[in-house]
Amino acid sequence: MTNLTTMSGFLLVNFPGNPEIEILQASLFSVFYLVALSGNMLIITATSIDCSLHSPMYFFLKHLSFLDLCFITTTVPRSICHSFMHSGTISLWECILQCFAFTVCCSTEMAMLTVMSHDRYVAICFPLRYEIIMDTTTCVHGVLAAWTSGLISGIMHTAATFSIHFCGPNVIHQFFCDIPQLMKLSCSNDYIPELGVSAFLSVVAFLCSISVGLSYTHIFSTVLRMPSAEGRAKAFSTCLPHLCVVILYISTGVFEFLRPPSDSPTVIDFLLTVLYTVVPPTFNPMIYSLRNKAMKTALRKVFKERKPYLFG
């Protein structure tokens, strides 16, 4: 049997024999990527230049937007190029780098959403102590902890994946180097260490989800006890966008990783992967902007400041 770790790389295959569908996929990916790029860049710009948004919530939101940009850039641009050029070859080292970057982004996003839920918990349940608890040092440490956990997860996952021996055809039925697809190419029981790492990271993700759930249980309990309807509305307007983002991210990831493996990938398998790799980074900026009056005001300021440069 051939060990493909000594060969040049892999072949990414989405829709074999369907160049029209491949071009359609590339066109849709281009639209999604441009929307994600513009939306997240606007949030980063607005939260950076508007003094009214210099608070812990928007500090974390700015880093989440940057993370979403990294997340979608890891897979989509290369897939677009492959589709338009009708060439899905990717070298071994490019595949390793893509797997590492993708895992880092996935794990960091989960950690960042957990940190953001804690921020909302402190803001709603301990409003008088909020500025003391969530000071600059705490916020910076929260972001660093999220990225550190992501880097550790990326190193563990990538090292375990590429320590296995790959046998047979070097074809990956996906638009990027997806670790579950790579494991299908493994020889014998070489993938057991990778399964151990996956199980460990799944437990960590589950604990993060439990932490988010507990935070929002306390948040809703506190909000519903507020005597003022205006106060409840304001609290919900700051918490619901984050909760929607969390549900979108976790639900799409669960759909992907809990579905039974398929030896012959279908369009449904491809769409499920798109749900958790492309949809969250694209729609997160919209979710955060729709119900947030402060964000809408800041975005209007950004457009007004840019207008003279565009038409002047």
List keywords for this structure.
Rhopdopsin 7-helix transmembrane proteins; mainly alpha; 75% helix; 312 residues; globular; disordered N terminus
Descriptive account of the structure:
This protein has 312 residues and is an all-alpha fold. The protein has a single domain (36-72, 107-166, 190-311), classed as Up-down Bundle (Rhopdopsin 7-helix transmembrane proteins). It has 11 helices and 3 strands, in the order βααβαααβαααααα. It has helices spanning 19-49, 56-85, 92-125, 130-133, 136-161, 179-183, 192-224, 229-258, 267-277, 279-290, 293-311; strands at residues 9-12, 89-91, 171-172. It has a 3-stranded mixed β-sheet with strand order 2-1-3. The longest helix has 34 residues, at 92-125. Residues 1-6 have low confidence and may be disordered.
CATH superfamily: Rhodopsin 7-helix transmembrane proteins
Number of strands: 3
CATH architecture: Up-down Bundle
Percent strand:
under 5%
**Rg (CA only):** 21 Å
In the CATH hierarchy, the third-tier topology is known as Rhopdopsin 7-helix transmembrane proteins
Count of helices? 11
Number of domains: 1
**pLDDT < 50 runs, ≥5 residues:** 1-6
Distance between the termini: 66 Å
Q: How is the biggest beta sheet arranged?
A: 3 strands, mixed
Helix content: over 70%
Broad structural category: mainly alpha
Looking at the structure, what is the overall shape?
Answer: globular
Q: Strands of the largest sheet, in order across it?
A: 2-1-3
**What is the CATH class designation?**
Mainly Alpha
Return the average pLDDT rounded to an integer: 83
